[in-house]
Amino acid sequence: MTDVDGIVALATPPGRSGVAVIRTSGAHVLEALAPFIAIETLSPRQAQLAQFHDPDSHSPLDQVLLLFFPQPHSFTGEDVVEIHCHGAPVVVTRILSLLVGQGLRPSHPGEFSQRAYLNGKMDLLQAEAVIALIESASLRSARQSARQLTGTLSLQLQQMRQQLLHVLVHMEASLDFSEEEIDPDGLEQMQQPLQQVADRAIRLLDSARLGQQLRQGVEWVIAGRPNVGKSSLFNRLAGRDKAIVTDIPGTTRDTNEHDLLLDGIAVRLIDTAGLRPSHDRIEQAGMERTRACVAQADGILLMVEAQQGWLAEDQAILDQIESRQIILVINKCDLLATDEPALQPFMALPVAERILCSCQTGLGMEPLLEAMARLMSQDGDEGEGTVIMAIRQQQVLQRLLQAVKECQGLLSHHSNSLELAAPPLRQALAALGELVGHVTNQELLQSVFSRFCIGK
Ligand SMILES: Nc1nc2c(ncn2[C@@H]2O[C@H](COP(=O)(O)OP(=O)(O)OP(=O)(O)O)[C@@H](O)[C@H]2O)c(=O)[nH]1
Ligand SMILES: [Mg+2]
Which ligand 1 atom is nearest residue 274's CA? Predict the structure, then answer.
């Protein structure tokens, strides 16, 4: 890409604000600014107060703070000037249009980061971490992205690359003596690093589900028969009376949603219409929605009533749930006689956790939240401190793992035909290159950077 024209964008959200930041980057930004500010007094990396002159008026347009980062020591690797002006939309628009009049081009989404990548300021993984950081819905996800921004994942991949290169060198050296069968020692020297790379790829892939949860949040759906107390639980966890609660079965028709943060993960809680055979068209429509929610949920809070035990109707609902993460919420425990064995009727059920609760008294709410958090964190720990955050990374890692496995298989079955094992090894190396961004094509770059906001 040789597009090095100067670009400009508002880097802060549009609208009225105390301060707005306009970012410029490119070889000619200083020239573009010259008609409006005294650029000769600009000193690198120092905040400087200045008047921004409007050529159409005798008085200054705004008093601004300027930051000048000369290339190559800037975010993009080019000359960068940031203009911190007052956040009045008219002022921002005027400054932008004056700069465009001087030849700067409004930037595309992610163009600053794309230039940083093209100028070797960061690799593709770090660029993706920037997006994830900006999009973070929770502190935990922000921390994870910030960690990736420092290059932790890049470093691990670099080590994997070294290991694969070691195998390739070994393989090519042995190929020169291809007439002879390769000795077991030499084979072991290749198998071992391959296994280490495979193990690492598997660990990273295991973290991808957690990465997805951190990125997008998770959905927990409250489902069960009518009148068991689903909306009461929803209101308890939401901390207010959001959903209508009555003693009439079939109260809830539409789904209700509430967002909360649990253990650093954004959780969307969904209250649904109770499931039962019904001829009421409105109720049927509600139940359709329930089924759709259940089908795409990450976890289900399946609610039953303690006093009633496990009913055929409950079983019918459980049969419709495919999710592997089900917490059985045994409600209305306040109605039980103190010596009743509350859990017993439910012990044989294939659910991840069983929680005794009462939405009336508040019993069991903390254990329930803890159980939800427990199930979510089971989805891959942060082992080496790295979590795969982007779908692209996950896909390329899968390809890498497949290639490594193929190579391993060929080596163990045909130890005398190394030529066969070399191509998958090269594919694995290519996948690594693609991950970090050493090997890229325009389409890939487009798909990564178009997800950024303007001005980043
Ligand atoms: N005693 C007792 N009553 C409860 C408890 N939780 C809910 N209820 C009552 O049970 C009835 C039904 O509660 P809802 O929360 O509307 O039940 P639901 O599952 O949402 O019902 P539908 O929307 O009809 O599917 C209400 O009268 C609640 O006050 C509880 O823990 N103990
Ligand atoms: Mg309800």
Answer: 25
